[in-house]
Amino acid sequence: MGKIILHLDRVMVERKMSLNELSEKVGVSNVNLSKLKNNKVTAIRFSTLEAICDALHCQPGDLMEYREDEQG
Amino acid sequence: MNRLKNSKLLKFGKLATRIVEIFCWLGVALTLICAVACMVNGDWTAEHMLTGEPIRFNDLTIADSAETFGTVLPVVITALLGGCISLALTAIMFHTMHRVLASAQTGSPFQSANVRRIERIGWLAIISPIVGWALTLLCKFILGDTMVDPSLDITGLAMGLMVLILSRFFAYGVSLQNDVDGLV
After folding, report:
1. Nearest to A35 among B178, B179, B184 (CB)
2. What is the pLDDT of residues B30-59, one digit of tens each?
3. Is some CB atom of chain A closer than 8 A to the CB atom of B53?
4. Which value does ipTM take for this structure?
5. What is the extent of the structural domain holding B109?
6. Is A61 part of any domain?
7. Which residues in chain B (153-182) have CB-CB distances under 8 A to chain A?
8. B69 in a structural domain
9. For residue B90, which of B141, B165, B21, B22 has the smallest C-alpha distance?
10. The domain containing residue A32 runs over which residues?
């Protein structure tokens, strides 16, 4: 089975937004946003995703990608 | 989580399990000393240990007086070693319980280590009455006493089985905890 890869770091760079700024806008702690940036999470709430998309003016598809397992 | 950490019942449980564990280990040491004393010098032990009260092990009277003590020395030694094993198993069980309670005070109780610990408690609760029963049978066999029926502590077995089942429930709790920990 493949896995979901998050591209929050890339979108943040494109939007020139810092982690602190995003944290304030989204209402999620720096620690949890850092986990999202580093793909250390196993699940994300719709409310969190909505808030991030709202703050970064992007679509969920911009933030995440499904990557198939290399071995098939 | 703070409510769990500050729970008085948890603190009391930690203290109580530690105290019981210490007493059990003391019991292990004492029964071992008695068993060794019996092996080294049975007559001396009979003189100094028997106070007129009969020696009993799991509802089985082993020796009524100092006169009969010498003749049933192998049974006394077996009973002492059996008591030592039972006490050691109980001590390990309480030590494991203490570690489960301690882990709940430092973080979430739903850890895979606790699943293994609770499983161990369940097995110990099952093994302990079986060991006692087997040793009673052995003592009866040595004494040749056929009048007393050996009884197995069904309550202990049932409790052990229940704890084993609870460990499976706990394993499910651990998987839910992992989901929650990874959720943002």
Report:
1. B184
2. 999 888 888 887 766 666 655 556 666 566
3. no
4. 0.72
5. 2-179
6. yes
7. 178-179, 182
8. yes
9. B21
10. 3-67
